[in-house]
Amino acid sequence: MTVPAEKLRLGRVGESARRTDAVPKVTGEFAYSSDAYAAGMLWGRTVRSPHAHARIRSIDVSEALAMPGVHAVLTHEDVPGEKRYGLEFRDQPVLAFDRVRYFGEPVVVVAAEHPEQARRAADRVRIEYEPLEPIVDPERATEQEPLHPDRPTMGHGYRDDPRPNVVRSLVIRRGDPDARGDVSVSGVYELGIQDQAFLGPESGLAVPDGEGGVDVYVATQWLHVDRDQVAPCLGLRPEQVRIHLAGVGGAFGGREDLSMQIHGALLALHTNRPVKIVYDRQESFVGHIHRHPAKIWAEHRATRDGKLVCIRVRILLDGGAYASSSTAVTSNAASFACGPYAVENALVESTCVYTNNPPCGAMRGFGAVQSCFAHEAQMDKLAAALRIDPIELRLRNALAPGDSLPTGQRITGTLPVADVIRRCAELPVPEAEELPRDPIRLPGGAGNTTRGEGVRRGVGFAVGFKNIGYSEGFDDYCTARVRLLADGSAEVHCAAAEVGQGVANVILQTARTELDTDDLVLAPATTSSVGSAGSASASRMTWMAAGAVREACRAALAERERTGGEVDVERVYRHPRTTPFDPETGQVTGERAHVAYACAAMRVVAEVDVELGLTRVVWIGTAQDVGRAVNPQAVEGQIEGGTAQGLGLALMEEVQTRGGLITNASFTDYLVPTTLDMPPVESVLVEDPEPDAPYGVKGVGEPPTVVSTAAILSALRDATGRELTRVPVSFDEVVGLD
Amino acid sequence: MLLREVEYARPASVGDAVRLLAERDGARALAGGQTLVNVMKARAASPDVVVDLNGLEELKGIELGPDGTLEIGAMTTYTEIVESAEARARPILGEVCAQIADVQVRNRGTIGGNVCSNDPTNHLPPLVVALGGTMTIRGTGGERTVPAEEFFLGVYMTAAGPGELLTTVTIPAGKADGFASLPIGRDGTCIVNVAASLDGGAPRVVVGCVDAVPVLVRPESAEDDAVRGAVRAAGLQPPDDVHAPAEYRRHLAEVLAVRAVRAAKERAS
């Protein structure tokens, strides 16, 4: 018996239409990249460095190659083209040669008939290492031997910092950085390494096309930039490498960098067989970059009535062994270091260094998370010093359109900072629950650690902001292609990666709106049928995809009007142009270095067992500047998910290392929040349409992550009376054992 | 995932099971599989023969004697203990079993597996010691009983040696018990847990996760200060790892001991 599928409620822009991928994801029918299969495929396996820093003396693959079922064992010598790749600088070897710079760095790849044969062969690869002293302290990295003596970071238009191991440094000077106020508060803040912890580990399938080229089916965030990194390493032309989006089990920035793409393609071309590679959880912890750990020194000076006079901030980011997107994280951390506040005088120094710690790059919030944690702690401290209500203090300093940022950029679009603060502050805070209660509703949860003993309640508040889209002069664009067919239906092509954020619905709802029909489909995302969409990151994809699809739809309708037949048009959408920062002063060199901004305010109620250091976040209320919601339910989903990720950083998530080696590469030892940790989130969508964006939309994925870590810590400080300057906050710090 | 080849046996009686375990050095008993299967998957160990106890009805079930003594078969699952009317004679048993991990684990995991694996972070070793339990062990030479406090010998080592099988856990009558634990994650592994019992005179306070075996502490009274002082005097040397420093665990042991004893006192009154 078959049951007719329920017809989807097909929504237009502004409607909470059901997501196309929702049901298959819930029922388990959704095909993730790890489900990819091809007849006759081999299984790839990566041999990785057990050292954080070592010279490679020799690699002997002969024994592995002789193992049963093994078809290929490849080293750097088998990489036919460029030996290195990278998002910004080509500093990362496809397979390590001469030396390894981080724990888990790929050195050899193996392909065999069965995954277990590949695993056993990988164990028989003999690599002789000469361990070297690892650089693990970012504060000392600039005084140590260079990890990249050829200085791949020089000559790209950034400030030329002569110190070794600097990936990028940026100084923003505004007004008089020595200006004094009536009061001054200072603090030093630290953040550990957070992992994206997507549930679908890195995986993909590479299929040789029989003509020297290769098709790669992979979970990624930006298909075309994958292609542009893969092809040169294989010695192929870009069109000989086709990247197809396979089902993505979460990304959060962690799939911006390559994982198995080149390795799989190399093995496939070498064996002339399809090759599948799937990382396990442990491997995933070294298979992608993480959020930069940071140390931030901040000083805030203000008048007696709470007006900010001068902010001085120094930020140190640990980029790990390779640059990835560290340059942009460095400037983002600097751009948002002062928070969404108007201040005339500022000095911000932001530096990212190379070390032998795990490589870091893009993760949801991208530099703004680290800064927000520090500036909001400072604002609370300032409010306490001045005896001003912390929300009132934020309102007195809130940025508004027309104001200038410390970079000299005037806010030309919308940025309703005061509005999100007020709307969030208006949400009623729930009363404390009565005792006794179910232990699951107390700090410590199922452990039944307290029946109310030692429990104190705290309320916290934070505001944060971040850029939308790529910045600093990057040519940021998105392509869409629309076919209008003779039967009246339409087909939309856009290589925007659906990473779980809901961009497929953005594209479909836009196309239905513009073409005024429900009879259309979204073609699979691939480099082979449409131009680049840019990255599903920087909270840009909604804006950019909506812009491109809208233009392509309108052009297609005009074309059909003109020709009367089937049409097939492709259009490229660009957001307003940005320009770089002046490398010496950190000031904008044109109208804007960032295209637009989005802000969010969040209020948190938490309970803390102050004797044990256990916490429970009870309630979260938030108001977010969303421009205009394409799909309000999806926006709320992004707010809740983004908040959960910030809660993870606040309370539990940290990749721990010793001498550069990761010591907790499992979900037993690296904890992520579950439904038991997440409180209800009440969200208010503040719709203030962005003038430069299609339909007035803004990206919504990152602001909740930016602000939630800071807001939760604010609540914990209120409950405990302790400074709590490091996240994730540890039990013993909450208790005050230090 | 392809593991090393293993032999599999599903004995029809406890006698057969004990014989199989005694015959082969590399034989391991499989109860709920919540430890052994994970160890095999991690390739940390690989038995030659897996002796599956799941067909042995004689090892399952809970009996309540006229004097209030509970006889719990080693293959009784956590869920069965949670749902058992008989086990409510000693309510702490069901309460602690309900805290273990998640529904799937509780449906598979057994009391025998929990105590015999003696992972120092397990819930039940400190509890059975605090409650003054007795363990019945069967070998090819017959049956013997061991007090719970002598059962736990080291990490993953108990008095049930090679070729032997724990068959029954006997818990005497009582009710003035408490348990407090600190799990990592809201339903995860404990980093310190404390079981306390006030039945039969001076408190029995047992700290888990801080040493290879549960640490029995006998405070002079059930007053907070006496309990705290006794735990401090025990000179615990807990591990220092990714989850918490040793100093914090020592602090936890004291606070959780006080709270477990308070819970026991409330139940007594």
Note down, in words, how this protein is organized.
The complex is a heterodimer of chains A (738) and B (269). In chain A, strand 15 and strand 16 form a beta hairpin. In chain A, helix 7 packs parallel to helix 8. Helices cover 24% and strands 25% of the residues of chain A. Among the domains of chain A are: 410-466 and 596-735, Aldehyde oxidase/xanthine dehydrogenase, molybdopterin binding domain (Aldehyde Oxidoreductase, domain 4), CATH 3.30.365.10; 477-574, Aldehyde Oxidoreductase, domain 4. The relative contact order of chain A is 0.13. Chain A contains 15 helices and 28 strands. In chain A, the strands form seven sheets. A seven-stranded mixed beta sheet of chain A has the order 3-7-1-14-11-12-13, sandwiched between helices. Chain A has a six-stranded mixed beta sheet with strand order 9-17-16-15-10-28. Chain A starts with 21 loop residues before the first helix and ends with a helix. Chain A has 738 residues and is an alpha+beta fold. In chain B, helix 9 packs antiparallel against helix 10. Chain B has three domains: 7-52, Uridine Diphospho-n-acetylenolpyruvylglucosamine Reductase, domain 2, CATH 3.30.43; 63-171, Uridine Diphospho-n-acetylenolpyruvylglucosamine Reductase, domain 3; 177-268, 2-Layer Sandwich (Enolase-like, domain 1). Chain B is globular and about 55 Å long. By secondary structure, chain B is α+β, with helices and mostly antiparallel strands. The mean pLDDT of chain B is 94. In chain B, the strands form four sheets. Chain B has a five-stranded antiparallel beta sheet. In chain B, strands 11-12-13-14 form a four-stranded antiparallel beta sheet, sandwiched between helices. Chain B has a three-stranded parallel beta sheet with strand order 1-3-2, with helices on one face. The interface between A and B is medium-sized, with 33 and 31 residues.
